[in-house]
Amino acid sequence: MKLKTLLLLAFAILSANTFATTWNEPWADKVIKEAQYFVLAKVKSFDEDKGVTIEIIKTLGGPELKGKIEITAFYLLHEGSSSEGHGGDFDFGDIKESYFFIKKNDKGKYCIATPSTGFDYVYEGNVHATYRHSYHQALVPVDVYEKTMTAIFNNYHGLPYDSKYINDYVKDILSHKPAGFSESEMKTFFAQHVALECIYHLRLTGYYSYILPFLNDTANFHNEVSAARALIAYNTPETKKELMNVIRDTARSQFLQVICLWTLTEFKPKELKEELTKIKATAPDEDLGFGGNIMDPRIGTYFPSVKEALEKLIALL
Questions:
Q1: DSSP E strands: which ranges in the chain?
Q2: Which of 128, 118, 122 is nearest to 190 (CA)?
Q3: pLDDT tens for each residue of 31-55
Q4: How many CB atoms neighbour CB 131 within 10 A?
Q5: What residues are paired with 139 via a beta bridge?
């Protein structure tokens, strides 16, 4: 299934010799939860096999890091295939400055999540940012990125964050009608992506009526997906009804239907077991994924069929 991407980021930062290696790319929440440090740093040098040397500019989350450090491993790299034992490479191309989610492993080595996620690089005052998955990135101003991503990192690590800024930002941005992909709308589109994903990560309440127009924006796949994720903060009969409407509608994206099922899974809706079982009988079982270049090493990313997602949800009820 061919899906639109959020941004013009085809990961030119991945070198050609990583194409023989594939992996299951983790989602942003897992990357952030498992990181111990969130920093902004200069990229000083890198070696494809040995790692990347960075110089810390500032620590935004976790214990403070200072000076130069070497990142030499990965903390969420689960390979699907490799060529001649060659694993994922470090390749930062022309990246000069980037935000990093870092973890120190049990061998004392600093790690990023995979060769393609766990870092959000800066270019001309904006950040190529991952709030959902590295396949779906947004171009975000530095100040907005720092405030929202620091809030997300702190929340996942049980630390306080600037809730006033976050709520003011989300309310303001989602007060506008859902944006599309035209050049004049892209800035708003990216901002709305950030706002909706903040609701998901921070489980923000009070925005239900703001979310629904995005769930029903059938002209914009990414708005639908972010809205379906954001509804995870609203375990109500009304929310379940909206999600089920999407799941029943064979005209809606199967990828979106799986996201809706994942949100429902968080609710454990026992009262829907009978209906979900009926839907499963005729649910599509075709392979799904993020689309894109088949040579992309992230092609090994797991994504279930609608039938498989239904089976897993029903088994919990």
A1: 22-23, 37-47, 51-61, 68-74, 79-81, 97-104, 110-112, 119-123, 126-133, 136-141
A2: 128
A3: 999 999 999 999 999 999 999 999 9
A4: 29
A5: 128
